Amino acid sequence: MSWWGKLLGGGFGFLIGGPIGALIGAALGHNFDSGLERLQHEDDVASKEDMKPGAQERVQATFFTATFATMGHIAKADGTVTRDEVQVAENIMAQMQLNAEQRRVAIDLFQQGKDPNYDVRAVVEQFRIECRRRTNLMRMFVEIQLHAVYADGKSHPAEEKILEEVCEYLKFPKFMLRQMEILVKAGRAPGGSGGQRRQSSGRTAARSSAMNVADAYKLLAVDKSADKAVVKRAYRKLMSQHHPDKLVAKGLPPEMIKLATEKTQHIRAAYDLIKEARGW
Known about the structure:
Layout: H1 3-8, H2 11-16, H3 18-28, H4 32-38, H5 56-75, H6 83-95, H7 100-114, H8 120-131, H9 135-149, H10 157-169, H11 174-186, E1 196-198, E2 204-206, H12 213-220, H13 228-241, H14 244-250, H15 257-278
Antiparallel strand pairs: 1-2
Helix pairs in contact: 3-5, 3-7, 5-7, 5-8, 5-9, 9-10, 9-11, 11-12, 12-15, 13-15, 14-15
């Protein structure tokens, strides 16, 4: 049974507990009092071993829940949820190819995040604990939130403040947020995904006003004077951090694999930009 099937079983919300468990319960309409009874029937819910903190499917359920709820919170940060911000959430749902029930739950979580009483700190800190040092997975979480922030083409001070707080709760330094911003902006270029085109060599090159050579260096976190070996090592590290299969193994819901794949395309575009500029 997939993480989604186990989530529907009701056991996930009960065992996870805390603010994320409450979000799951509210979205699914489960009564956690009856959850105790469900746990006595292994045919109805996942085994306790599968649901231990840090277990892959438990992390997948937590990622899904925290992602859409926090996205709603950020969209509401400037006082108004714009059509662009709603569209970003809908686009992510479309990319994930959610079925009708999954989509309903994602929308409910988004609405819960808009509530003035939504405790973003409690949710994000619980998410971090559930991830158990899966830094790459937490990076992906922030990158998805950045998509919500730049949905209308610009960021609002209130949204930026929440993002900085989210990174603080995840124990991410500010330079990492700046790096992720460049990666997300690259994907918002005009003329297609990341504004990229294909070269005759088959490699993807960045041809976008959203990413220039200076941004490419910042994205790879290397100095413009770095030699070929240093740049290549930084590129491989970043690609490894966003490798779709590795992220799914760490707890990224499989439905989000397309989002991770797009990130690797933008990273490759940045690397190609630097190589072209340096004549490598």
